[in-house]
């Protein structure tokens, strides 16, 4: 993982896989927060990073309003 001025930059494959895991398995947890907590520990990223990645993915796929990554 490369370092940036804002912290550690996670590989795109890790980000995509982590988001997919949350979206595919959140029904198995009491809440989305619980899914994010559990999965973030398994993949080795922070809860906040994973939460942001999931929100951005929902924006990019049209499930949430906001600016997409392409914009």
Describe the structure.
- Helix content is 56%, strand content 8%.
- It has 71 residues and is mainly alpha-helical.
- The protein has one domain (9-60): Arc Repressor Mutant, subunit A, CATH 1.10.10.
- Strands 1-2 form a two-stranded antiparallel ribbon.
- A hairpin with a 2-residue loop joins strand 1 and strand 2.
- Helix 1 (12-25) packs antiparallel against helix 2 (32-43) and helix 1 (12-25) crosses helix 3.
- The termini are far apart.
- The relative contact order is 0.13.
- The mean pLDDT is 90.
Summary of the model, kept short:
The chain has three helices and two strands, in the order ββααα.
Radius of gyration: 12 Å
Low-pLDDT sequence parts: none
Under CATH, the homologous superfamily reads: Winged helix-like DNA-binding domain superfamily/Winged helix DNA-binding domain
**CATH class, please?**
Mainly Alpha
The N- to C-terminal Cα distance equals 25 Å
Q: Compute the number of strand runs.
A: 2
């Amino acid at each position: 993982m490369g370092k940036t001025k804002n912290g550690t930059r996670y590989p795109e494959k890790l980000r995509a896989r982590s988001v997919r895991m949350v979206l595919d398995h959140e029904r198995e947890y009491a809440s989305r927060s619980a899914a994010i907590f559990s999965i973030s520990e398994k993949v080795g990223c922070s809860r906040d990073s994973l939460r942001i990645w999931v929100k951005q993915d929902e924006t990019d796929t049209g499930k949430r309003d906001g600016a997409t990554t392409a914009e």
